[in-house]
User: Fold these one by one.
Assistant:
Number 1:
Amino acid sequence: MRQKKKTSLKDIAKQLGVSPALVSMVLNHRGDEKKVSPETQKKVWNLVKKLNYKPNQVARSLRLGNSKTIGLVIADISNIFYSIIAKSIEEQASANGYSIIFMSSEEDPQKEETITRTLINRGIDGLILSTSCKDRDHIRKLRDSNIPFVLIDRYIPGIKTNYVLAGNYQGAFDMTEHLLSLGYTKIALLTVTPSHLTTMKHRISGYQDALRKNGRAVKNKLIKEIAYNNIKENMEKVLKDLILTEKVQAIFFLNNKLTIAGLEILKRLKFRIPQDISIASFDDIELFKYSYPTITSVSQPKEDIGRIAFEVLLKEINSQDTAKQQITLPVKLNIRESCGNSMKSLFNKI
Amino acid sequence: MRQKKKTSLKDIAKQLGVSPALVSMVLNHRGDEKKVSPETQKKVWNLVKKLNYKPNQVARSLRLGNSKTIGLVIADISNIFYSIIAKSIEEQASANGYSIIFMSSEEDPQKEETITRTLINRGIDGLILSTSCKDRDHIRKLRDSNIPFVLIDRYIPGIKTNYVLAGNYQGAFDMTEHLLSLGYTKIALLTVTPSHLTTMKHRISGYQDALRKNGRAVKNKLIKEIAYNNIKENMEKVLKDLILTEKVQAIFFLNNKLTIAGLEILKRLKFRIPQDISIASFDDIELFKYSYPTITSVSQPKEDIGRIAFEVLLKEINSQDTAKQQITLPVKLNIRESCGNSMKSLFNKI
DNA sequence: CTGAAAGCGCTTACAG
DNA sequence: CTGAAAGCGCTTACAG
């Protein structure tokens, strides 16, 4: 009573006086192959259209062992970084007849495992995953389960899997060199825990290598870590420490959440950007282009990450080919106002 | 070969020397009801745990006629308004054993219908939908199909359905009165087509009524419509017209996309906020709190919309009750810097 | 206390 | 050219 009884294959077959098997073949465009007469095929299609019949996908899934559904596991769909990737994946998926089930892991490895199991039990054909796991067990299990999957944004070193991500090292390296070129000598780095994530590790390396290459020492006290789940609580203390005690000239925030939280606190503490402190962001968001001042950033090709991840996944789903693809996409440096634009801005501060 | 053969109920039954039916009953916690001996139950659970067996949800769905999956149809998951709602729905869903399949309609009624059918054929138990349809046909069909659904953000007047949305009229009314209270007399309104959406209609009414209530005439040339799919292209012309020709003092943008696009153009045209022009936004985003200047806005209870929509949906899924719920949630006025703070700012302009 | 059988709605190998 | 049968992995009414 909840659901009006929907028309099924059998109904069509009965009304037409043919077998369900025949209808099924016609519907799957295998009528010719099975030499079903054109008239019969025509009759089938007409009735199907008239009754607005759509095959029950659940039954098909059970029978065929595939579901035309893929799972998407990310930390948080409300983070613009992931929602743009999700959008892009969905566009591709939709164009290829696939649907997306998404679940948020909240950066909790435990939850990530549970969610992944749930998705697999729901019969997904493949998985796109931004993993927050620190050890390799989960990913190894995934690989052993033989479900096709593609990691995005983060990967697990030492396990051969598909992955698609941005040039984290290069982006941080380039940004750091940019800051050095502006004359800044004390450049702080703000990162989040869990710091095992490859994204953060590579960005930190990029920063360190750029300093070293330019003859600057890496000072560990200028590299600050804030716990992912309470960024806001710790930001104030960290910023005060960096600006007032360490007297840094620029702060490089390693993801958009950090940058946004940083902007909030800097505003509250009445530090002016870039007069009092220069800032740069890894990961660009739309408003950075229009805010006052505009925010210098490294932007990642989010749409490409999503699109390519889906393509790689689809390829693996459709073939027995087990060659894994590792793809690193180029990032872009957006030079804007938040770092000042010359030595002059630096001298103005003194 | 693609997928390792997974353990099934039958495997468990065989290994234990019992029937699949028994295992099924135990797994569904109906062992006691069926008077399965505690020892047998214990044995079943032990083996299930040992083999890490999880029932095949596709088979369950087919048999039970439900899938513990709900569909989410929105215009665009990468719009922060929807992605926060999606997050909130997913949290609730997850806590209740449901998964979410999302699809984007791109504000295209045609696509919305197709997507909805796809979701229904995938066996979803219910649907949460931000409709972009202008006529009632689609929603009526949906209602007649007997699938439980809840509209969010927008509803269709004249059709009794569940819906959960924000106080659009009140928010626009309050914001307009706020702008009037600051001494502004020429207040422009920027809205998007398709303008049939109830959200936009109500916001426009709120603006108009606030003007009238305060003895101000509504001037239609101060109400501008921009097409949803090329906001950026039209924004510059509209803003120039309003500011330079109409000499408005304040612009009220009716959604966050408009506000963001507006900020971009204002910046490019070098209009200062609020010295040259005051702006207000319907729909708040995080950065509005920290930008320079901070942006005065109406914020909607996005998390509540998502949570309550799911609760309403779940209630309908679980009961034969067909009473529909119409829920309008309160909005909040955030007075910040983008409108100046007194008559003084107004005089400064002259 | 437990099992055999039917069936959810499809698809496919087999038979004619 | 077309149909009958089996089966995907579950659950449930029925039987003993």
Number 2:
Amino acid sequence: MNARRKSFRREGEDFRRRELVEATLSCIATLGMERTTVREIAIKAGVTAGLIRHYFSSKDELVLAAYSQYVGQMAAQSREAVDEVSSNPLIQLAAFVKANLSAPVVDQTNLSLWASFIETIRTNPAMAAIHLEGYQGYRADAEALISAAFAASGRAVSPEHVRRMGIALNAIIDGLWLEGSMSQGEFAEGELARIGVESASALLGIDLQNADMK
Amino acid sequence: MNARRKSFRREGEDFRRRELVEATLSCIATLGMERTTVREIAIKAGVTAGLIRHYFSSKDELVLAAYSQYVGQMAAQSREAVDEVSSNPLIQLAAFVKANLSAPVVDQTNLSLWASFIETIRTNPAMAAIHLEGYQGYRADAEALISAAFAASGRAVSPEHVRRMGIALNAIIDGLWLEGSMSQGEFAEGELARIGVESASALLGIDLQNADMK
DNA sequence: AAGATTATTATTCATTTGTATAACAAGGAT
DNA sequence: ATCCTTGTTATACAAATGAATAATAATCTT
């Protein structure tokens, strides 16, 4: 019964931090915030619990880092989808909508992860700050795409109108994302994205559905 | 240091259960699920922690009852708003949208409460069942209103189209609710509801904005 | 190759938490 | 009035949790 000490490799700080953050996200997504303990995170990361405090001064700080990583990741994902397509603003806008209404964004686990973070925003100012920054960036991206789309359609619109459209577009995307993520299996493959593009077209008064038919 | 026993009143089962459920909702909304302990709930309800187990066999069961109460309350609120106005379907639909995009529905604390529950749906089948029932009811209400609105506008639409519109309407409401609840103070009084009615009009192709000008 | 550094593991600690049990008293029954 | 029922408080307990500290070994330095 003489248990030997666990063997291990020494890793660099950035590597471990990233790994711990990744494990934290995985835990929160699958277990929820309440059941995400430092021990559970450590197991998922393949280390012992004590190591967490070597890199993060508290569990709160780790969760904060995880949220920061999550927000950045979602933003990057969204921007990539736009950059991947042609420079036609209508096509870009359609790609933006589609990317946010397909896997892996639309996913029950991802929704659960998001909800776990949202819950903490009200009482944790640091979390709130990260959230605000991410949200504003998202809205700015949406408004830039809308502005460009209107310009490409030869329509002059006021900044106030762009703001309104940004709010509405953001809402339809978020709302469809919610529905798609919650109702497992109700939507056929690609259906949600199609409804999203149709709805965005109706809201903006621009036909985005045939935009990618070059 | 001879602490006297706390004086108390004996109350009926329904009274206590309701009070404990109410305290639970309040705790989750303000503290978050993680910091909502049986002791905290008891304090908020003005009783001692032991009493909770007298009425609920576990904390989970209490939280479940609280969620059930929450879902029912939200549904009733929404239906009341529709029943309060005239029987004109367009006006009813507008009222439905407005009710879901005004206080007290749009509120950061309410969002936090909702998020706390959503988080648990993935791992708790009982919570998932309550959620599904509430969601389906909500969607059915929306589709009924949409059907009636199309009929009143003299437009014949297929059930599939109604379904699509229901999804989209639901999405714009949820999305705007999210935005309004998260971004404290960005929206002027009534602005969110106005954007909602405008957006719903654009989505459905029905003018709901002037519907209440009798 | 030996020593120094520190990343990592192992162990310990004080609190908190859900739950279980025991003691008590408020209000009704007789 | 006295007894009885049971709603309610008070106390106890085991498990879990975040954090702190001690021990160890992997890798770098020289």
